[in-house]
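Hallway conversation turned thread

IA: we were arguing at lunch whether anyone had actually written out Fluoroquinolone transporter permease end to end. Turns out nobody had. So, for the record, here is the sequence (237 residues) and right after it the structure tokens. Reply here if something looks off.
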Amino acid sequence: MFAVFARNDLRGVGRDSLLAGLLLAPLVWIALVRFVTPMVADSYDIDLTPYYPVILTGFLLLTSAIVPGGLIALLVLDERDAGTLVALKTTPVPLRTYIAYRATIAVVLATVFVVGTISASGLLPADLILPLIPIGVLTGLSALVICLTMLAFAHNKVEGIAVIRGLGILVAGLPLIPFFLDSDWQLLFSLIPTYWPAKAFWVAWEHGTWWPYLTVGTVFHLLLTWPLCRLFTKGVS
């Protein structure tokens, strides 16, 4: 069933230039980070090395949660408009299989985006590639939360695009502020799901103990995902 769902998604992305562009957007962000960052440093004779973590987080890590989350939500909204989800209830395929497929795609895509884009940026130290994998998985859970949140507030693709624009400020903008805070005020941002992968990445960059942020962040995401999944299931029913 996962293969069937995947083939249907590929056809959907191929037919829609918006979805295809969203999927290819990380390539543009890689180019910006890889080539523009050293150009700015050379032009203005400034050392941007201390800010590499927040640059990578803002352009690549957090956007790696938005792209899969938004893409999957828009695909589901398309299927909802076409009556596919209603038709699914008449087949032997349980809804939990469909949800499991969507969750798996969100986590896998986000992990690939995180590891692939940040590794290709030219700014990442080689010893951080392995820690980047579990941090990418946590980013995938953020993508899942973003997807489910969009489905909770949007009823069609137009509304979905509006919701993702609003979420972009919340999940890709505000979590950057704690990087510049050296106090417990950082904890105020812990209610934003993407704070946790961002914080784990920053601590890993400093070769600190980053796994507690990974653990707490995973639990926090699961606590958010459960009611959102129930809400989505209820909406389909």
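OS: looked through it. The mean pLDDT is 90.
IA: good, adding that to the notes. The CA atoms of residues 107 and 181 lie 29 Å apart.
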